[in-house]
C-alpha cells in the first residue's frame, strides 16, 4: 500500500461516515473540521484528522465528533444536554464503529478512547 497522508485518511473516514446510517439518523450533516455551519442548531458530525505517524505500519488518529443541541427541558430558558438523544447516538456510534472492521477496508480500526459525551458532545476517536 502506498503511504497515506492526512487528507487521504480524512476523506476515507468522511466517506464511511457519510454513507452510514449514523449520518442518516442525525438532523444535520457530515462536515470536515471548520466546515460546519456557524451556530448550527442541528445534530452534525465533524471529521478531523488529529495525528499520524509514518512508520512501517502507519498509524493515525481521526476524531469523529457528533454535536447534539442542548434542550430547554423545563421551558424556562435553561438549556441542558439532551441526554436521551446523546445516549441514543452513543449506541449508534458504537454500532458504526463495530461495523468498521467487517467492511472491505484498507484500514484496521481501533478505539483509542471510549465513545463518550464531553460537554454535551459525543467524542469518538479511532485510529
Describe the structure.
The chain is an alpha+beta fold and 127 residues long. Helix content is 28%, strand content 24%. It is built from three helices and five strands, in the order H-H-E-E-E-H-E-E. The chain has helices at residues 6-18, 21-24, 83-100, and strands at 30-32, 44-53, 59-67, 116-118, 121-126. A five-stranded mixed β-sheet has the order 1-2-3-5-4.
In short:
The protein has 127 residues and is an alpha+beta fold. The protein contains three helices and five strands. The chain has helices spanning 6-18, 21-24, 83-100, and strands spanning 30-32, 44-53, 59-67, 116-118, 121-126.
Task: Lay out the secondary structure.
Elements: H1 6-18, H2 21-24, E1 30-32, E2 44-53, E3 59-67, H3 83-100, E4 116-118, E5 121-126
Parallel strand pairs: 1-2
Antiparallel strand pairs: 2-3, 3-5, 4-5
Amino acid at each position: 500500500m502506498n503511504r497515506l497522508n492526512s487528507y487521504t485518511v480524512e476523506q476515507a473516514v468522511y466517506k464511511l461516515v457519510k454513507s452510514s446510517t449514523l449520518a442518516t439518523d442525525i438532523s444535520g450533516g457530515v462536515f470536515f473540521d471548520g466546515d460546519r455551519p456557524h451556530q448550527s442548531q442541528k445534530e452534525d458530525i465533524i471529521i478531523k484528522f488529529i495525528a499520524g505517524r509514518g512508520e512501517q505500519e502507519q498509524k493515525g488518529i481521526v476524531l469523529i465528533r457528533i454535536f447534539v443541541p442542548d434542550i430547554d427541558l423545563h421551558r424556562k430558558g435553561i438549556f441542558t444536554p439532551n441526554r436521551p438523544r446523546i445516549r441514543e447516538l452513543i449506541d449508534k456510534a458504537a454500532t458504526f464503529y463495530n461495523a468498521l472492521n467487517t467492511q472491505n477496508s484498507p484500514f484496521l480500526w481501533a478505539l483509542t478512547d471510549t465513545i463518550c459525551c464531553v460537554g454535551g458532545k459525543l467524542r469518538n476517536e479511532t485510529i
